[in-house]
Design brief:
It is a single chain. This protein is an alpha+beta fold. Helix content is 62%, strand content 12%. It is built from five helices and three strands, in the order H-E-E-H-H-E-H-H. A three-stranded antiparallel β-sheet has the order 1-2-3. Helix 1 (2-24) runs parallel beside helix 3 (85-108), helix 2 (57-78) packs antiparallel against helix 3 and helix 3 (85-108) packs antiparallel against helix 5.
Length: 152
């Protein structure tokens, strides 16, 4: 039950942050934070990560749906296991972040991204993320920790 609440909360928080960023920021405006190491800038991403498959938004949406179905299936498989708390949390974050981005993709045709970094290689500085992406990354990390913990 806690995992379901985590997924809903992650999706709810990100939905409202995206709504706010979409209303108060223009696509050309950039707002540096933390001495320019973090940059707020709105970007409409029609592709997957790094604008991969940008010219095939239907493919991206279908892959996204398939990935969320896989997360739901994985969660159904481990939902009754008592020693899988880390995996459940990881899958909850994957589901919450993934559903938030899928909601954008279905309702708007793009995902609202708004966080970039002002350090690292040029290709990295060009990437724009949203909080849902960080939920997904963290969810993958937790699932990997669970797998590695289980292997030992």
């Amino acid at each position: 039950m806690i995992a379901v609440i985590t997924a809903i909360l992650a999706c709810f928080i990100e939905y409202h942050v995206k709504q706010h960023m979409d209303k108060v920021r223009s696509c050309k405006e950039q707002r540096p934070l933390a001495g320019g190491r973090i940059v707020l800038k709105k970007y409409y991403n029609t592709g997957a990560a790094g604008n991969f498959l940008k010219s095939h938004p239907k493919w991206v949406k279908n892959i996204h749906i398939g990935a969320l179905l896989a997360v739901a299936l994985a969660f159904a498989c481990i939902s009754r296991k008592k020693d899988a708390g880390m995996a459940k949390t990881g899958l909850a974050l994957l589901a919450g972040g993934g559903f938030s981005n899928l909601h954008d993709r279905v309702t708007k045709g793009y995902v609202v991204d708004y966080i970039s970094f002002g350090f690292g290689p040029k290709w990295f500085r060009r990437l724009v993320f949203n909080m849902a992406d960080f939920f997904v990354f963290t969810g993958i990390f937790f699932c990997m920790l669970h797998i590695f913990k289980k292997d030992k």
